[in-house]
Design a protein that fits this description.
By secondary structure, the protein is of the alpha/beta class. The chain has 15 helices and 12 strands. It binds 1,4-dihydronicotinamide adenine dinucleotide and 1,3-dihydroxyacetonephosphate. Pathway: Phospholipid metabolism; alpha-glycerophosphate cycle.
């Protein structure tokens, strides 16, 4: 059976970073055709067409400078030519452009093709909020999954480790997309609650703007996190004592207990001890394998496990297998 044709609809910062992954995975697997078309909104960059630059220098010099794209990713300026014959469509444009693009694509969409939206945003209609994936579904009449995560495009292009989530109501499609998009350093969990995944990805951008306001006004971490749950998690990961001491632990040869004493002037860390308590519970319930992060934090703090093992353990998270 010939491999499935893939088209990336979009070529901005995230679109180009994802093209790097998709190009390389498509080339390596028989399941996908090696040539990947990437629709590029044509513009002139220093007097040259961006598509021409991408197709000769294999770099999106405007939106993802400094990163080479695989040579099998071909920039196409005409949206109808780009999407014709595609079995898999990856939507990754700023959300304000999706409606018009779908209208242009509609007559050229192959029946049975499937889509995935990497677009973070929502639309607003007479009945209230609309998901971008719903707009694509409605306009193009195809099954649409979503991919959202804490995935700053430049860091993904650098191949720094990160995680992401595919939301797919069709488990088979979810697996196809995972095969196309997962790498050693871009780890994917597939879940069925697609709408929740998409909403989280879209709404966090509003919170990010609020956070920028707080920074601009010179407020601290608590202000930035003036909600609960996830906000607390983010704050603790940037500004908390557990984070600070853990960083010093990596850079020194001292134990957590010594550093706590030296750095915190009598204040107490909660994280390492909590990891020990949780570890005991997991052990009793035979659930250690299901919680690799909690387990390795405990082992690094108390059992002499090397810190670098943290990434290896995340790379083998059971959800990624
Ligand atoms: N950049 C990032 O780190 C991440 C972005 N995202 C999401 O991915 C989506 C796409 O973002 P990026 O790829 O970063 O794009 P971007 O923010 O780099 O946007 C520029 C893109 O829009 C195109 N464009 C400009 N005018 C246009 C028009 N009239 N019609 C169609 N396209 C036009 C440009 O050619 C360029 O490809 C957004 O929803 C964003 O929230 C998601 C995760 C990470
Ligand atoms: O969605 C993103 C990271 O996950 C990128 O966020 P920004 O659009 O605020 O850069």
């Amino acid at each position: 059976m010939p491999g499935k044709n893939v088209c990336i609809v979009g070529s901005g910062n995230w679109g180009s970073a994802i093209a790097k992954i998709v190009g390389s995975n498509a080339k390596a697997s028989n399941r996908f055709a090696p040539l990947v078309k990437m629709w590029v909104f044509e513009e002139l960059v220093e007097g040259r067409k961006l598509t021409e630059i991408i197709n000769t220098e294999h770099e999106n010099v405007k939106y993802l400078p400094g990163h080479k794209l695989p040579k099998n990713v071909v920039a196409v300026p005409d949206i109808t030519e780009a999407c014709s014959g595609a079995d898999i469509l990856i939507f990754v444009v700023p959300h304000q452009f999706i409606r018009r693009l779908c209208d242009q694509m509609k007559p050229h969409i192959k029946p049975e093709s499937i889509g995935i939206s990497l677009i973070k945003g929502v639309d607003e209609g007479p009945d209230g909020l609309r998901l971008i994936s719903d707009i694509i579904r409605e306009k193009l009449e195809l099954e649409v999954s979503v991919l959202m995560g804490a995935n700053i495009a430049n860091e993904v292009a650098e191949e720094n480790f990160c995680e992401t989530t595919i939301g797919s109501k069709n488990p088979e499609n979810g697996q196809v997309f995972k095969e196309l998009l997962q790498t050693q350093n871009f780890r994917i969990t597939v879940v069925s609650e697609s709408d929740t995944v998409e909403l989280c990805g879209a709404l966090k951008n509003i919170v990010a703007v609020g956070a920028g306001f707080c920074d601009g006004l010179g407020f601290g971490d608590n202000t930035k996190a003036a909600s609960c749950g996830v906000a607390d998690l983010i704050t603790t990961c940037y500004g908390g004592r557990n984070r600070k001491v853990a960083e010093a632990f990596v850079k020194s040869s001292k134990s957590i207990a010594e550093l706590e004493k030296e750095m915190l002037n009598g204040q107490k860390l909660q994280g390492p001890q909590t990891s020990a308590e949780v570890f005991k519970i997991l052990q009793k319930k035979n659930m250690i394998e299901k919680f690799p992060l909690f387990t390795s934090v405990y082992q690094i703090c108390y059992e002499g496990k090397p810190v670098k093992a943290l990434i290896a353990c995340l790379q083998h998270h059971p959800e990624h297998m």
